[in-house]
């Protein structure tokens, strides 16, 4: 049984966007931060959306000290754009980094983040994260209706059982940035993930 190895990325009272994955990959568990696999396109997508090339590594030939410094750059970027990263799964059994092998799952207390922030948008990174989020919500007693759009899906809560979680919040199911999602090119990912920019007006 594995426990989620690290906390959500820094959250503050003005945080607006919560990006949820499933569970950290082997690379992320080893390096201590989100989306650390060199072929995962998450940081490249965010870098392109916000015109910031400093947040993704162009070379994997760096030592631990350099990588820790790079994590500081990523955290500062997230805070400056009011973005919080976390994962849905708290504990599980998993084979390597394979989402399909996840079993005996328990969930993080996702909605606890709403108590100390202004989160209005949830982005689910991939199909597995979407399925897990639906299960998490079902365990709390409410249902999500899915609507399909050209580049992404939206999930609409049909009940509001948590004061900070209202039907006005925006929940997007986005294509996974994982290298396993090979059918999506970087341009295709950008077309979907640019929905994040709506938050900034």
UniProtKB/TrEMBL annotation:
Residues forming coiled coils: none
Pfam families tied to this protein: UDG
Residue ranges constituting the Uracil-DNA glycosylase-like domain according to the UniProt record: 13-195
InterPro entries: Hypoxan-DNA_Glyclase, Uracil-DNA_glycosylase-like, Uracil-DNA_glycosylase-like_sf
The protein, known as: DNA-deoxyinosine glycosylase
Organism: Helicobacter aurati
